[in-house]
Amino acid sequence: MTIMAEATMGDRPDGLEGRVDAPEERYNPYTGRRVVAGVDDAVPTAAQLGLEPPRFCEACGRRMVVQISPDGWWAKCSRHGVFDSIYGGRR
Question: Which portions of the chain have biased composition (kind: Basic and acidic residues) (predicted)?
């Protein structure tokens, strides 16, 4: 299990991943690029170490507003709401 898997939007409590109308496309939360099966997308080293919050929404690829504090961070997508580091067990 990688650090990236711990802090993904799939851990959100609103359950986007289980809904019938959930988007088929997924985006890298650190680069904003569309995730393509079989193609590796470079994840920054700081993100792998859990030091960098996601900057892009994993559901739509939009840039998020990110606030970093001493005890964690939160990121807000204009379409999908707030994702807090506490959801990924980072706080």
Answer: 9-24
| Confidence band, pLDDT 50/70/90 cuts, at residue 79 | very high
Both structure tokens of 20:
């019938």
Distance between start and end Cα atoms, the chain: 18
pTM flag (> 0.85):
no
Signed CA dihedral, 17, 69, 46, 79: sign only: positive
Q: Buried (b) or exposed (e) across 30-58, using 16+ Cβ within 10 A?
A: bbbeeeeeeeeeebeeebeeeebbbbbbb
CA–CA gap between residue 78 and residue 38 (Å, rounded): 29
Q: Could you tell me how many residues make up the chain? A: 91
- The residues, ordered by sequence, that sit 6+ positions from 45 with a Cβ below 8 Å of its Cβ are none
